[in-house]
Amino acid sequence: MANTIIVGAQWGDEGKGKIVDFLTEKTDIVVRAQGGNNAGHTVIHDGKKYVLHLIPSGILWPEKNCVIGNGVVIDPVSLLEEFDKLDGQGILISPDNLVISNRAHLTLPYHRILDSFRESGLGGKKIGTTGRGIGPTYVDKSERSGLRMSDLFNQKKLVEKIESKVQKANSLLEGSDVEPLVTNQIIEELNSAASRLKPFICETTTYLHERIAEGKSLLFEGAQGTYLDIDHGTYPFVTSSNTTAGGACTGSGVSPRNIDNVTCVAKAYTTRVGSGPFITENQEFSDRMHGMGREFGATTGRKRRCGWFDAVLVRHACRLNGADQLAVTNVDGLDGIESIKICTSYELRGETITTPPADSEDWEDCTPNYEELPGWGDEITAGAESIDSLPKNANNYLDRLSELCETPVKIIGVGPDRKETLFRD
Ligand code: IMP
Fold first, then answer.
1. With a 6 A CB cut-off, is 39 part of the ligand 1 pocket?
2. CATH superfamily placement of domain 4-103+200-263
3. Where do the CATH 1.10.300.10 domains begin and end in the chain?
4. Is the CB of 132 under 6 A from ligand 1?
5. Whose CA is nearest to atom 20 of ligand 1?
6. Is the peptide bond before 236 cis (omega within 30 degrees of 0)?
7. What is the pTM of this model?
8. How far apart are the C-alpha atoms of 224 and 229, rounded to whole Å?
9. Does the annotation mark 209 as catalytic?
10. Alpha carbon of 224 to those of 84, 95, 170, 183, 327: distances in Å?
11. Which residues are registered as beta bridge partners of 263?
C-alpha cells in the first residue's frame, strides 16, 4: 500500500483508530507522530474492544510494526500501564513490533500538575484539556528545557533538570491544596520505567527511512483533529501539536516526498470535547446521541458535544491537509433522523463566509447556514454489508458531502467493528 497519512477533519474522535485498523491490513508499519496520551482511540478488533492512547493501533496486528515518533510526547509511566493493559488482553508488545524515538519528549508529573493548575486559573476561559500535561510538555519542548527519551539514560542530567523543574512547580503550588512534588519519587519511577523501555528506544527516523528503502509501506495515525491543530485550529481552544498532515512529517522525520496519500476522516455529524467554538452544536442532537449511548470520550469519559455536519470545516480541512479521499464514520448515528442538516456557510456580522475565521471572537459571532436533506426513515445503515445495501438517501447524503467538501467520500463506517467499514467507488 502507498504511504498514507490519516488525519481527523474535525475536533478529534472522528473514528480514525478504526479506519487505521482497517487500513493496517495492507500496510507494514503504523506510525504515531504527534500528541500524547491525550489521544484515545477505541478500536474493536476481532470482536474485542481496545482503548489505545499512545501505542499505534497497528499493535493489534501481530505481524505489523509500530513506531512512536519524535513528535509524540510520552508519559513513560502511563505508556507502561498501557503495555500492561494490552498484555492483559493478550497483545504482545516487544521491540520486535514497537520502537520509540529517542527524540520524543517526556511528559512528567509536574507537567500534569501544571496543566490542571493552569486550567483552574482560567475560570470561564478553560481550554477543557484532558489534564494529561500535554500543553506544558510542549511548552518545555519549545522553550528548549524539556527532557527527551534519550535523557532517561543520563542520570546526572535527569536529576538536575527534574530538581529544577520540581522546584519551579512547587513554588507555583505554594498556598494551594495540591501536595508538593518530591524529586526522588519522580526519579525512582522514571528509572524503573527507563529500564523497561530501554530496548524499545532508537533513532526512529533512520529506522523508518531504512524500511522505506526496503519497500515497506507506512501508515501515519493522526491524533486529535484539524481544528485542534495549534496553528490551524480554533485557537486558543486547541491542543499543543500540529495535528494536520504536515505534523506527520515533522513528527517522524519522513519527508513529504515519501507521502502518497492523505485520507481525512470525519464523522457523518460533528462532535467536540472540551471548550471552544462549535458553530453547528445542537442540544437536541447531543441528547439524542447520548441517549443512544454514543459520544462519550475514550480518554476522559466526558460527554462529547454534538451537532450537525459542518461542511465549511471539513472542506477547509480537506484542502489544508491535501486530502485525496474522505472517510466518513458513524453514518449509522444518523439512522432514524427524519431530516438531516448540513452547514454550508456561516453568517458573520451580515457577511456570508465559506472558510473558518481565525479569531475566536469571530467564531463566537458566526451562525450556521444549513441545507436540509431527507433522512432514510425506517431503513438503517447500521451493520450494512455493502454499499449497494445502503438506503438510497444515505448514499445521497454521502454524495452531497463529497460535493460540498470537494473530496470524494470513499470509505464509510456503519458501526464500531472493522467489518462495518465499506469502500465506495
Ligand atoms: P490537551 O490536548 O489535553 O491539552 O487538550 C486541549 C484540547 O484538545 C481540549 O479541548 C481537549 O478536549 C482536546 N483534545 C485533546 N486530545 C483529544 C482527542 O484525542 N480527541 C478529542 N479531543 C482532544
1. yes
2. Adenylosuccinate Synthetase, subunit A, domain 1 (3.40.440.10)
3. 105-196
4. yes
5. 12
6. yes
7. 0.96
8. 8
9. no
10. 24, 26, 31, 32, 15
11. 6, 325
pLDDT in tens, 250-309: 999 999 999 999 999 999 999 999 899 999 999 999 999 999 989 998 777 889 999 999
Catalytic-labelled residue, pool 28, 41, 310, 335: 41
3 Cα: distance to centroid of ligand 1 (angstroms): 26
φ, ψ for residue 126, nearest 5 deg: -55, 145
Residue 328 contacts residue 340 (beta carbons within 8 Å): no
Q: How many angstroms does the Cα of residue 149 sit away from the middle of ligand 1? A: 23
Nearest residue to 271 (alpha-carbon basis) of 14, 2, 9:
14
Torsion over CA: 350, 356, 357, 362 (sign): positive
**How many whole angstroms from 183 Cα to the centroid of ligand 1?**
28
Q: What is the pLDDT of residue 124?
A: 66
Ligand 1 atom nearest residue 35's Cα: 2
Ligand 1 and 233: CB distance under 6 A: no
The boundaries of every CATH 3.90.170.10 domain in the chain are 266-423
Spans of the chain, pLDDT less than 70? 122-124
Q: Does domain 266-423 have CATH number 3.40.50.620?
A: no
| Residue 9 CB–ligand 1 contact under 6 Å | no
The answer to whether 111 is a known catalytic residue is no
* The predicted structure's pLDDT at residue 123: 66
278, 316, 352, 360, 394 from 347: Cα distances, Å: 14, 17, 5, 15, 28
Point out which residues pair with 409 in neighbouring strands: 326
pLDDT at position 125: 78
Q: Is the CB of 224 under 6 A from ligand 1?
A: yes
What's 171's DSSP letter? H
37 lines ligand 1 (CB under 6 A): no
Where does 105-196 sit in CATH, by number? 1.10.300.10
Domain with CATH 3.40.440.10 in the chain: 4-103+200-263
Q: How far is CA 74 from CA 17, 190, 195, 225, in A?
A: 19, 12, 15, 19
Specify burial of residue 125 (Cβ count, 10 A radius: 0-12, 13-18, 19+): exposed
Cell 522553550 maps to which residue?
Answer: 143
